[in-house]
Amino acid sequence: MSYTAEMRESIKKVEATRPRRMEETHRRLTLEEQQDLLRRFHPDYLREGMRELRVGPNAGDRTPNEFADLLEARSRVDPRTFDLSRVDYDTDVLVIGGGGAGASAALLAQEQGVRVLLATKLRFGDANTMMAQGGIQAADRPEDSPAIHYLDVIGGGHFTNIPELVEALVMDAPEVIRWLESLGCMFDKLPDGTMVEAHGGGTSRKRMHSARDYTGAEIMRTLRDEVRSRPDIQVLEFAPAIELVLDDKGQAAGAILMNLETGDRLLVRAKTVVLATGGSGRLHYQGFPTTNHYGATGDGVVIAYRAGARLAFMDTMQYHPTGAAYPEQILGLLVTEKVRGLGAQVVNVDGEQFVYPLETRDVEAAAFIRECKERGKGVITPTGQPGVWLDSPMIEWLKGPGTVEKALPAMVRQFKRFGIDIAKEPMLVYPTLHYQNGGVLLQTDGSTTVPNLFAAGEISGGVHGRNRLMGNSLLEITVFGRRAGRAAALKAKEVKPGRLTLEHVLAWERQLAEAGLNPQIVSPLLLPEYTRHVR
Amino acid sequence: MTEELVPVFIMGKRYDVPSSLTIMKAMEYAGYQLVRGVGCRGGFCGACATVYRLQGDDTLYFGLACQTVVQPNMYLTQIPFFPAQRAEYDISTLQPRPERLFSLYPELLRCLGCGTCTKACPQELDVKGYMAAAMRGDIARVADLSFDCIMCGLCAARCPVGEAQYNIAILCRRLYGRYLAPRSQHLEDRLAEIRAGQFNQALEELKSLSLDELKARYKARQIEPE
Fold first, then answer.
1. Bridge partners, B184 (sequence order)
2. Sites in chain B below the pLDDT cut of 70
3. Looking at this predicted complex, what is its ipTM?
4. What is the CATH number of the domain that holds B25?
5. Chain B closest-CA separation from residue A372 CA (Å)
6. pLDDT mean across residues, chain A
7. CATH number of the domain to which B115 belongs
8. Which residue of chain A comes nearest to B215, CA vs CA?
9. Identity of the residue in A159, A185, A194 whose CB atom sits nearest the CB atom of B184
10. Residue A417 — pLDDT band, cuts 50, 70, 90?
11. Which among A282, A241, A279 is positioned nearest to A96, based on CA atoms?
12. Could you tell me if residue B160 is inside a domain?
């Protein structure tokens, strides 16, 4: 594979400017310049990409067209005929979602001495958590503090974050690192035990803890192994939730699952429910490729909304600036921010810098789009995909030969499969759909506006405001997974369950009709539609 | 631009697919809706372990469907699940000693050192090497050598004596992370400070600031140099 002749010409320019650039630092943008850049080039600001919701608790709020279609769709369950008297599984806490947030919630719930059932759509651990490479933030060095972390988070979110949620995030962070270590996570350390910590976009202190560039995978496989070590937690794989079940007091009281292989429905009765189904990158807003795993179709947000949960920040998505733009086989896959954290600059077709490499993700992504779309300084691949260079060979110059191989093994492997040696050649990158900034509105204990319904992780909204910083998603899933799991278990001990009902689904149908809507599609989506059929 | 089509055989049945596709995208092009054998689609989760042969070649090849480009006359099948032994343990009461490893996984000592596992690993890990380290009871070495394991199970699927290498490896990594890695004093110090309420006032103050004050505070941050 490797690069085409045209791309090699551009790489020569990158190599020619490299010695000079080693001495140069691009200026950071002012807050005003950042806002201007976002308004002009960030996909969130494209008017035709979104529309107002017409029904539900957030009627009148804007969200991407693709998400709005699913939020306003019909249920996969017929509430008139579904038999709620036959219960297949009875539990205290039902956790829906088998990523990092769901696993954390299950562990903390179990520690309160209740029965836990964790149901997940695909395999346990098939989640965006597994793919997070760069790291997890925690202010645990003397030069740093939770207050400085707070300021970075809230500035990165353009001062829109919910303050109490940010406070919970930063104050729990060091404890979460210790907890993960106690479960056996291997963080990068110096021989004396000092954590190796780096900068991320928008951080004012180095606080990015990593496990090579498999940080999320290391956290996920450890949490999964711990869940499997605890007999009191039952795990159901290939069993996505397709509707929540409430009781006649309006409390969450279980869910209807679908056996993804047989299509059979399963009824779970629970005293409390934790939703941890993650994000929605596989909805491909505005046609963007995505870094997300196959199952990221926003299912949990859809069923929570039908059950009456209020959402927040649903008009903002995160486009990661450095998605792979070449080769086509890995289009949109994540190139970790750690590459820039280690010192790689971003340069255009002429080998010149055009943006400080560690602006917040939304600003950085908007700058890439401007460089390609407005200034025409992008590199164009044979399929017409534009991109800019991420100059990874600089890392070898800055941090010594062999650093790329040691610090970025997953990236090296990813590109080596297609004949590109990232220690010697730059990578071509372009923004890719990465993260759902908004979602189900949370309180600090993970509770939502629906009684006995909790949420944690990417499904939720409020912690990051309008933009999340690198390293705060692995932190969020563990901090709020733990909080939600614990709170759901404590609540489960005192709940007086009522009679199971799907009345909210009937009410939803009435609301659709009153709004003059007659949707033909059903939701949640469950699986993206990639299958080609000839006829 | 019309792309060249090449024949591939999915579970023995022929489909003509564009030559640039990965195995995973080729299956979708052929009409499959994947449920098993698909996960992150980025080479991290280990869901899409695939075995294939090429016509006229007696070698058995291994790869991840999401990371491997099709070749003409490829005969392939996925192994999305393989039953493997997993020991029961409570990490909080284990000890990081070789005897514990041997008692939890006694079959470890049956390893022949044949290296079939290494040949099967789509991550190109030295599986045989870490199994040898495990037999020596060198937990730290296993943890290091196996670090990039995605637990796809191809090693276990190929092992002639039924080892579950990847489960032995994660036990070693967890033992290393919990018991053998050097402790971080700065983390302990910070936890003590948080418990003592040392940051509560600063957080309360930040939460009480007006938007303009908060912006000013943000702009005035000192950025720690690289």
1. none
2. 1-2
3. 0.97
4. 3.10.20.30
5. 23
6. 96
7. 1.10.1060
8. A155
9. A194
10. confident
11. A241
12. yes
CB-nearest to B176 from A155, A186, A194 is A186
Q: Are residues B106 and B45 in the same domain?
A: no
Question: Residue A103: phi, psi to the nearest 5?
Answer: -65, -45
C-beta of residue A202 within 8 angstroms of C-beta of residue A362: no
Evaluate whether residue B216 is within a structural domain: no
> Tell me, what amino acid is at B193?
E
Q: What number of other Cβ atoms are within 10 A of residue B102's Cβ? A: 15
In this prediction, residue A15 carries a pLDDT of: 97
My answer on whether B94 and B193 are in the same domain is yes
On the question of pLDDT at A404 being above 60, the answer is yes
CB contact under 8 A, A291 and B147: no
Other C-beta atoms closer than 10 Å to the C-beta of A65 total 14
pLDDT value, residue A231: 94
| Cβ neighbours of B210 in A, within 8 Å | none
Q: H or E segment at B52?
A: strand B49-54
Residues of chain A with C-beta less than 8 angstroms from the C-beta of B42: 131, 291, 293, 330, 333-334, 414
pTM of the predicted protein model: 0.95
Q: Is residue B90 part of a domain?
A: yes
Q: What is the pLDDT of residues A476-528, one digit of tens each?
A: 999 999 999 999 999 999 999 999 999 999 999 999 999 999 999 999 999 99
Q: Which residue of A has its CA nearest to B43?
A: A414
CA-to-CA distance for A262 and B137, rounded, in angstroms?
Answer: 44
Query: Least CB-CB distance to A261: which of B35, B92, B189?
Result: B35
Q: Does residue A93 surpass a pLDDT of 50?
A: yes
Predicted pLDDT at A1: 56
Q: Touching check for B60 and chain A: CB below 8 Å? A: no
Per residue in A161-200, pLDDT (tens digit) is 999 999 999 999 999 999 999 999 999 999 999 999 999 8
- Say if residue B73 is in the same domain as residue B94: no
Catalytic residues of A: 320, 340
The interface residues of chain A toward chain B in range 113-142, judged by CB-CB distance below 8 A, are 122-123, 125-126, 128, 130-131, 139-142
The string of DSSP letters for A48-102 reads GGEEE--SSTTTT-EEEHHHHHHHTSEESS-TTT--TT--SEE-SEEEE--SHHH
Task: State which residues form the domain around B110.
Answer: 82-210
Same domain, B56 and B124: no
Give the number of domains in chain B: 2
Task: Taking residues A44-58, report their average pLDDT.
Answer: 95
In a domain, B40, yes or no: yes
Q: CA of B65, closest CA in chain A: separation in Å? A: 11
